[in-house]
């Protein structure tokens, strides 16, 4: 290495990324180190978004560069600094070295050592300095990122009582944090103003009264829902393409606890067939909320709420739906479309109420947020920044730890929002999650097997399934391309000790007792599948359950967060007064609207799927794979938009440009 090198240092672009502290750099090569150099140009250095060049001298040839050492020291006032990357240009040579950072330097006299950007497995490192650096980095991270059993019989999480306990690298950027807090306050204030003319805690008088809070906070699909929610076809459509599209299953035979007969439903079938024949043909589908049975109901303002575990049969035919509300050991009847209109409407509301609980706590929280948190913690604990799998996964883990911490403290805790307005709030939500975790399988997280096992591979107009499979294929091709660059054979996977420590941490520490989740990886195919599951879950699956929640829940009667009276036992006794007394009251409805808008809205600092703002990979071959991934996502989006042309109710939640690259909300 010549005596003078040009060192380029890039400061972060988010608010408060810059610093006025002293920054020192030392270049470390195979044959020695450069001078420890203070980076100080005329004027202000390290301003937000700045990319500054400096000259670093060395009295001897350093050989190939291995790492860059950055040091930050206080100047008057302690001031954190976010470094994006460091580049080193060698005079007289075409090559330059890139050292990805994307980290905060926090505190006085803090030292960070950055490896050169080429992704390397532990077997690719031969120098003692390289190997010791990997080990030291992981030892430090394992002190910072620790496992915690938040509750028994659910996945473990990060050891942090609140988001304030997280290291700066896992926190929201300031803009994100300000928007997150401000938007919820805005929504709650907006809706509280609507309550001024309505006595707190009292019921509505009529379903149209819900329109009194249905302004300003709205969306086209939410308005469509308000206008069509009573229609049977729309009720059935939501099982396919609503906020919880993973429940519907082909019914091969009627459950033993569902005493429906052919005569009961004949009027709902086409005249030339029977229930028995339609079951045989595969045209009858089941949505079973048995997991809700016996869940303790919340008590809100000294009033017990109510929970049911309905069974719902659906017939694949336009506007043909029949269902049962089953709540052992009560005498709840079977409800049919031929029942009195108000009884039929209330029965559907009970199904949608169960849908709210299951989609929020199981499909959304457990199957996306908590699953990805396990991957995130394991990745931080077991894979050094130079490892190719760390580089692949890290962009898909952005903000996940903080949003999950906030969820546990602000939504799910004993004084959180769910306790105040949701029927499963308090003890119920944890028991529900524990039940689901007992039946969670690795296979069910893979969309191909999920659709196959539920028998819904040929169900018509199942846009969630179609788009999920398209995305899965693109993601799997991308992951396969990256993995194949660094693992030439199955034996290289099996012999990667860091990778094996990672999967052991995932399976043994994070996911305890999940069926078929092996604690070791033996083949490239196994690795590709697991990484595809991680990326699919943090992008597509989360978007499918999160991004539409305001659309389907804003009109509260369509998806009520709680029910204040038990299910009816007499169809003829159902009145509008009974319905209004059962549905969420004014206060509960306002909070449901606010929280679903807050969580379901597009985020101002969102990074769309496939857009890698932080460039951890530096090798041309890896960058070509990423570029191909982006092009395939763009083509997929064009295909999705074309499929939606002419549809009155469009399904666009899985457009890559509308999905975030990670779980951030």
UniProtKB/TrEMBL annotation:
Molecular functions per Gene Ontology: iron ion binding; oxidoreductase activity, acting on single donors with incorporation of molecular oxygen, incorporation of two atoms of oxygen
Coarse class of the protein's main subcellular location: cytoplasm
Domain Lipoxygenase: 120-665
Database matches in SMART domains: LH2
Record-listed Fe cation binding positions: 364, 369, 542, 665
Pathway(s) of this molecule: Lipid metabolism
CDD domains found in the cross-reference section: PLAT_LOX (cd01753)
One of the protein's GO biological processes: lipid oxidation
Claim: Coiled coil is one of the keywords in the record: yes
Coiled coil start-end: 619-650
GO cellular component: cytoplasm
Record: residues binding Ca(2+) 2: 40
Keyword Calcium: yes
Similarity annotation: Belongs to the lipoxygenase family.
Entry keywords, A to Z: Calcium, Coiled coil, Cytoplasm, Dioxygenase, Iron, Lipid metabolism, Metal-binding, Oxidoreductase
Source organism of this protein record: Cyprinus carpio (Common carp)
The protein, known as: Arachidonate 12-lipoxygenase
Co-factor requirement: Fe cation
InterPro entries reported for this sequence: LipOase, LipOase_C, LipOase_C_sf, LipOase_CS, LipOase_mml, PLAT/LH2_dom, PLAT/LH2_dom_sf, PLAT_LOX_verte
A Pfam family per the record: PLAT
SUPFAM superfamilies registered for this protein in UniProt: Lipase/lipooxygenase domain (PLAT/LH2 domain) (SSF49723), Lipoxigenase (SSF48484)
Every PLAT domain range: 3-119
Details of cofactor binding: Binds 1 Fe cation per subunit.
